[in-house]
Structure formats: structure tokens, C-alpha cells
Amino acid sequence: MAASGDSYTKDKIKSSTAAASIETASKSSNSSTNEKEKESPEVIRQRILDQEAEFRASQKPTTNLGSLWSWKKSEGRRPEDIATQPSVFDNPELAPYFQPSERYENRHRFDPSFKWTWAEEIPLIRKIDWKVTAWSCIAFFALDLDRSNISQANTDNFLDDLGLDTNDYNLGQTVFRVSFLLAELPSQLVSKKIGPDRWIPIQMVLWSVVSAAQFWLKGRSSFLATRALIGLLQGGFIPDVILYMSYFFKGTELPFRLALFWMANRLTDVISPLLAYGLLRLRGYHGYEGWRWLFLLEGILTFVIGIWSYFQMVPSPTQTRAPWRKKGWFTDHEEKIMVNRILRDDPSKSDMHNRQAITFKLLWESLCDFDIWPIYLIGLTFSMPAGPPDQYLTLTLRQLGFDTFDSNLLSIPCQITCTISMLLITYLSEKLNQRAFMGVAMQVWLLPCVIALYLLPADGSRWAAYAVVTVLLSYPSTHALQVGWCSRNSNTVRTRTVSAALYNMAVQINSIISSNIYRRDDRPEYRRGNRALIGIASMNIVNYLLVKMYYVWRNKRRDDTWEKMSQEERRNYLATTTDKGSKRLDFRFSH
């Protein structure tokens, strides 16, 4: 576990403990000749994978951002120490069940007897970070720049210039989010079929062209059409990038990289107003409004990033050579290290090749996993009290009397403080091992702020209004925390990707509803809308508490069932159960 974790000795003890339990289960499964005859190698293999997935879940950080604070847990390692992680491949009885598929693109570098040192692994990980992690952050910057620059355009009389009103703006944002939502799963199917290294650059180039084409917007119809196209082309980008990154990093390393990936989103919200501060000054150049130049030039910028991505991305760790990159990224020795370290961490990654489509069976199984539904329900409303104020931030600042340039600069502080508070609440979640209570804390932050927003007098100080909105939007977001929560309660490698996508779809529905809370007949104070936000924040507090009670109840029922079983019954269950993931009696839900 090169980026974070304990020394090799400690890793070996932990992994050996896991292997011992797996081997015990394997032996138990052979206690009866009839049972042995009934079980196929695929059944045995899947049962061991489930048990290893549970072990990894107990060792890895509970949230994606949590590993920020465990980045330096490498004390006690010496460069000459062996970095090879113990795994099922070290057990002659278990190894045959985990041989890579014949179609696995990295199979030629697989060698279960291969060993390497920390002096070889750590520099290799740093190289991967520069090649893959850095690219992913820049790519996310491109996505967020083109989907959110409409907020900066609003400070330059965008709506008035096109003859639009608040309701039209709401409809445009709704169309974008519905399109984004509908494209999530189809995009993942395409990405898995043709490869994320091909599909992601295509997405980026196409949405950049549409974004730049907003320079020629004429009215309501063209506005809605471009919002729909951008949503369709951007949908699925985030899970596609996560899939791509999983080709290069172990399960314990990926969370830290995803933390950087999501923080790039917040940093875009800081950089975007600064870019707008300069680009909107082009108003009147060649007779065009400043917002037109904003869309055009930022679209060209992200188009260039999309083209660069085509040449930067690679199909897999062993397929990095290209006509423009004749030597590739890695030596043959480095490729062997990469492939073997990935498969030792998670043998199931060799089940499919990088051009193999996923099936709908996995989606259906994930949909039927009702124990994850409470987290999906949380995703539907948790950020809604902050949604409309965030979406209307620049418009609100203009209505308060701030000019175009001040409005863009004044939108920056809350983005910085929100990033800090998000990291803090994620840290506290890990330290206290609490998730639902962290969600309650977020709503407790938001509730008095939306109450204050509702009570602000229409003729009050504009700085007082700005202060309330800034404090509100500095809220400690639990979004990243809840992605980790959903992943942890899924408990299998096979379902985590789908459950994360379903949770993200719930969040998109959240955004769609948020886009229609502030209405034209309620402006400029939006009293009715803010009253609704007060009710939603109050409801969310109850929701989080109910979800916690549900998981506590589910765990107690399993505890009762488990305690009534004898040791022999438990061993027999572990050896023969067909329960998967969170359905297993020995699994307990996080809350």
C-alpha cells in the first residue's frame, strides 16, 4: 500500500490474517464431499473475493477525502524492504481460482512470483500521479468551467440580453441536469465498451464545441438546446474518469486521488470568477457582449484540453506506447510492478478487459439492494437548502447593487471556505466514525442561515445580505463523505461503481428540484422559496436521524441472528453462503 498504510510487516500480518480466514472458509467448504462436488470453481472464487472485499473495506479509509490525513503513514519503511503485498496468489490452493482472464490486456505482465522493493514502487507511483492524477484534475477543471460559467455570464446581463427571465433560467438549468442525469449510465456503457481513453476525449471535445457555440445564442430556444447538449455530453464523465483511474491505483490509493479530483471542482469555482473578471471586460469588442466572449474563449480553452487528453490518455498500464510516445510511460520492469501490485490488491480487476461492456444485471442487482436506498434518499434532498442560493449567487449580488466585476470577485470567498469546511467535516467523520450525525451537523449549519435569509428586510444593508449568503454557502458539504458511505455499505467491488452512480443520479435529481424553487413571481427576496428551504432543512435533520436508526436496527437484527448461531454454524455459513456484499450476515452497516 504505497501511498498510505503501515509497513510491509504490518501489511503482511493483516493480509495473512485475511488469507487465513479465507483458507479456513475454503477448507470448511470441502468438509463435505457432496458440497465440494456441487460447487464450481466460479462459486468458490466469488466467495473468496467477497471475503477479501470485506477485509479491504475494513482496512481502507471510509471516505475518499479521509486519506488526505493518512498520506504520510509510511514510517518504518526502508527503500530495500520488499513492497510486494501478500495475496491469494501466495496460496497454492487458492491461486488457481484467481488467474487473470485470457482476454485481460495486462496478462502478459502477470507473474505471481515477482517481487519488488519500496525503492522501486514509490517513484513509480509518483510517476503515475503526474501522468494520471494531474490529468484528471485538469479534465475536471474543463468540465466544471463549461458547465458553470453561465453563473458568471449572469453578472453581465446575460438574461436581459437574450430576453429571458428567472423562470427561463430555471428551465435551462433543469434541462441541463435532466440531460446530465439521463446520460450517466449510457455514458458508462459506452466508456466500458470502447475504453475511457477514447470516450472521455470525445466527450470533452464535443461539449467544448457546444459551449463555445453559445457565443451565437439568439434566444430561449437556442439557450435550452445548448444546455441540453452540454448536459448529454458531460453526463457520465465523472464515473468514466474514476473507472480510468482504477486501472492504475490500488483500492487504498485511489481515495486520495479522488480527493484531489473533487477538490479541483472547488478550485474551478475560484478560478472561474477570476477568468470572468477579465473576459467580461471584452463587452463591446466588435459589438458583442462580454458573456459571448466568455463562452467562446473558455470553450476554446477546454477544447484544447480535450485534444490534449486524447494524446495524454492511455488504454492501460501496459499499453502506453503510441506513434507520438514511442517509448511509452513505463519500462517492462515497471509494467510488471504495476500489474502485479494491482492484481494482488484486487484480483477481480482481471475479470474483464478494458474494452468489455458491463451488463445490465449488475445495475438490476444494485437497484434491488434496498439497504442502500436510505443513502439514495438522502442524496435527493441533503444539499437542497444551499442549492438555490448557490445557483443564484451572482444574480443575487447584482440585485444587491454590486457591479459585474465585484459580483464575480465576491463569489470567491464562500468557495474557499466551503472547501475547508468540507475537509473538516470529512476528517471529523473519520475520527468519530459517524456519518449520519455529520449530515445533521450540515443541516444545523444551513437551517439558521436560510431562516436569516428569509427574515432579511428588503431595504436592509446589502453587506448584511452578502454576509448571510456567504456564511450559508460556506457550509460543510457531506457529499464526498456520502459517496464513501454508499461505497462502504455496498461492500463489494462489483456493486460499488453502480451504487455510486445511482447515488450521483439522486444528487442530480436534487439539483433539478433545486433549480425550480426560486421563481420569477417570488423575486427579489424569494420569500416563498426560502420558506420552502427552511422546511427542507428541517426535514433533512429528521431524515438523517431516521437513516441512522434504520442502520442501527438492521445491525442489531443481524447481531441477534449471528449470536444465536453456534461456531460450527457460523463456519458453515461463511463457507457455503450465497449471500453477497451487504446481504451477508457477518456484515455491519456504517452509519
TrEMBL record:
Single GO term (MF): transmembrane transporter activity
Localisation: Membrane
Gene3D superfamilies documented for this protein: MFS general substrate transporter like domains (1.20.1250.20)
Signal peptide coordinates: none
Superkingdom of the source species: Eukaryota
Composition skew (Low complexity), residue ranges: 15-33
Protein's recorded name: Major facilitator superfamily domain-containing protein
Species annotation: Triangularia verruculosa
Lineage: Eukaryota, Fungi, Dikarya, Ascomycota, Pezizomycotina
